Each structure stands twice: as structure tokens, then as C-alpha cells.
Amino acid sequence: MLTFAPMVDSETTRLVLRHYGIPYVERDHLFGWVSLLTLLHGGYGAVPLVYRLGMRLTGPRPIVDRCDAALPAATRLVPVEPDLNRQVEADWKTFNGGMGADTAVFAYFHLLPARALMTPIFAAPVPPAEARLTPMVYPVLRFLFRTLLRLSPARATQAADNIRAAFDATDLRIADGRRYLCGDRLTLGDIALAAASAPLLQPAGYGAKMPPVDAMPDAIANFIGELRAHPTAAFVDRLYADAFGAATADAD
């Protein structure tokens, strides 16, 4: 898997591969540079790119669609039953498409100004040559994120409000003690929720490196504390502990 480690889609892909029991080697690179590297492996610039034995799949959803097609209907991450299918597709849109983007906006808005804190985070998973360059290219990385995510105080505030609303709605949904979002069956919605919230909640087993919460700026540290008080946070912790299977990745 060729990727930039902190991306929500990177974590979603890790969890999807773990669910299907697919061993993989994760090759992390600096943001921007990794997009160019995908072109050498049959990709088109987007990450994560999973490639093996002639297969080239970009992002988690194509992996799910390919693997689910080979499974019995009752064990697929995206159910075929119409009502359940609609719910899971809605969850995918809410968590991967909505909360995932909001998490990135909120986190990067507050963390990118902390250069001394974030430089080693970006450098940690990449090859040594890129790690040595990270302090020098940090302003470029910050510019890319600020531009692509259109970071601003207003967008960060709205992102936090959106995340709160998603947590509140999920709290109500799981209040009946259900094991998964759709009852007794793990679906793609559970994976999307876990991956989108993991950069903030930092559950045990999260696949990317983040700064310790007590080292983060107050605005994000306080927000993480607020989110961790929700039942949804305990739900995500349990998913990581019990639902996703053993890790099968090797660092490279």
C-alpha cells in the first residue's frame, strides 16, 4: 500500500484490508511526493494505492467492492438487502465523505501551526531521505494542506460543529446497546466511523502516528477530551479492540 500515513482513507484502507485478512506492506511517503510515486505503480496520483499481482486499486471503496463480490451476501461489508444497503451507503457518505473531511480540516487547522510538534509526525513513517528533508519542506506541506483543505477559522469551527453533530446522532443510534451500527453485523459504516474519528480519538490500534494529546494546542486537546466523553468514543474503542481482526501490515 502506497500512501500518506495520516490520511483518513489510509486508515480506512488498513481496516478494510485487516477485515478481509489481506496481508500488505505499507509504504509511506511525504504528501505530494507520494502522489507522483503512484504513477510509477499504475496509479493516477490519488492515494492510498494498493497494488499487487497486476491489481491496482485506489482508495478503500474499490477494495471493498472487489472483495465483497467474492463473498456470500451475508458476510459482505456492503449488504445487498435494500434497506440495509441504503443505511450502509448513507453511513459511508456521513463518515467517510463527511466526518473524514471535517476531521482533516479541524485537525490540520490547529496542528499545522505547531511546526515543532508536527515535523516529527510527518517524518516518522517515511524513508530516511524524506525524513531528513521534512523540516525543510514543512512550509510546502503546510501550504498544500491549507490550500487543498481551504483552512480557515470559520471552516474549522464548522468542522467541529459537524463532528459534534455526527457524534450526537451516533450516540442516539447506539443507545440500545447494539454491537454495530446496523445491529449484529459489521458493515462498511462501522469501518468508516472508526477511521474518520481515529485521528482525534486515537484508539489503541490506530495505524498512524499522532502527537500526544497533552502536547497538542489547547483547542484540539480540549475538543478531543469532549469527544472522548461520548458513548461513540467507547463504541469506536471496542471496534478497534474486537471487530477488525489482527493487523497484517509490515512497515517498509
Tell me what you see in this structure.
The chain has 252 residues and is mainly alpha-helical. The chain folds into two domains: 69 residues; 163 residues. The strands form two sheets. Strands 1-2-5 form a three-stranded parallel β-sheet. Strands 3-4 form a two-stranded antiparallel sheet.
Strand content: 5-15%
Gyration radius, in Å: 18 Å
Q: State the total count of DSSP E strands.
A: 5
Query: Which structural category do the helix and sheet elements fall into?
Result: mainly alpha
Write down the overall mean pLDDT: 95
* N-C termini distance: 10 Å
Count of helical regions: 10
Low-confidence stretches: none
- Report strand order across the widest sheet: 1-2-5
Count of domains: 2
Tell me, briefly, the overall form.
globular
Order of helices and strands: EHEHEEHHHHHHHHE
Most strands sheet: 3 strands, parallel
Helix percentage range? 55-70%
Gist of the model:
The protein has helices spanning 8-20, 33-38, 60-68, 82-111, 115-123, 128-148, 153-173, 188-201, 218-228, 231-243; strands spanning 2-3, 24-28, 49-52, 55-58, 249-251. The chain is mainly α and 252 residues long.
SSE blueprint:
Layout: E1 2-3, H1 8-20, E2 24-28, H2 33-38, E3 49-52, E4 55-58, H3 60-68, H4 82-111, H5 115-123, H6 128-148, H7 153-173, H8 188-201, H9 218-228, H10 231-243, E5 249-251
Parallel strand pairs: 1-2, 2-5
Antiparallel strand pairs: 3-4
Helix pairs in contact: 1-3, 1-8, 4-7, 4-8, 5-6, 8-10
Pfam families: GST_C_2
Transmembrane segments: 30-51
Keywords: Membrane, Transmembrane, Transmembrane helix
